[in-house]
């Protein structure tokens, strides 16, 4: 019976020692991102009846100590699912909000140097010229304000082009990140699979995989599938990016517009979920938000070029003796990117055709161009007929941009708060509490000490039996 007691005490010493090891591991990783605290589950060792001549008289089986049944992660799977859903939303709105903020910075309205102020100065310059059509200083003001207006169009369009290219590069970067994370998850799947074969719990590897899944969730929407062998599969739009020990990949291909389209490695398009993840957001910002603003700016510049040139062609240059209008192009180009002051006007102030006749002091055309400010020439988004002036159109698109940016920022703030709360709830169950670990350490330490006392007691009992009972054998 001494041997049985010693084995029972020894099992306790081993179990408590292992529990202390796990406690130490938890404390060591208390600040490790993605770490989930682990817990030791004890179970009584298999009992057995003591063989004896008086076996029928034994009250029951005798216990043989304790074993560590399992070492498990304390993790709420449901909270993980909810957290990743919101992380997908967070990734979308964070990226969208950032892109819209950059568009607002480019437009820079309202300001004293914005396009709206420059258009006002342009119309006012023509108004002044209609009063003094022969004044070279007034003509110079028209020339300079027109030059500044064209350059501002060019600058804004160039900035939008640059932002669009940056977003396109971000799409490529997202794809590279997705492929890298997918390969890492496949590798961890392989390690977990091998670990499970020998019936070990790959808790730390599962933490690493969960952390990678959280990173992936911020980039793209996916469905996670837990396989029976401990591996996971990742389904994106009905196709597997990771399938247990196998991995697929994305690639980017230039489309007709010169931007990257996202495809599977076999060339089939990837079905992205709307408003989920950074990748979807970068594509929307590139193809919708920025492109829409570029189209608006092009439409504004094109109409300005057309309307001003149409009137300018009907005018007479300063000092003209021609019986018919001889006004040259005032602007050249077709959109915000190419609009420029014509070389004829740029090189000679006299070529500004301010007069409706070749009579001295006639500023009729200059007045008509100035009156374009109040003419309904622009077609508002969603309309089919011109219902807005140049300035109204511009203010409308800037206002809509502001509304979109505010909505994106509000959604981003909401998602940020929501994911933070969900993460806190996850940490309440899965995070390491130093207070709890210290309490566990005391419990395991006392249990270890108690088991050691049992060993000491049995040693003393055996000493009595061996060394102090009788004198035979001495």
TrEMBL record:
Keywords: Bacterial flagellum, Cell projection, Cilium, Flagellum, Secreted. InterPro entries: Flag_bb_rod_N, Flg_bb/hook_C_dom, FlgK, FlgK_helical. The keyword Secreted applies. Residues 6-36 form the Flagellar basal body rod protein N-terminal domain. Residues 426-467 form the Flagellar basal-body/hook protein C-terminal domain. One of its GO terms (biological process) is bacterial-type flagellum assembly. It comes from the Bacteria. Belongs to the flagella basal body rod proteins family. This is Flagellar hook-associated protein 1. It comes from Carboxydothermus pertinax. The gene is flgK.
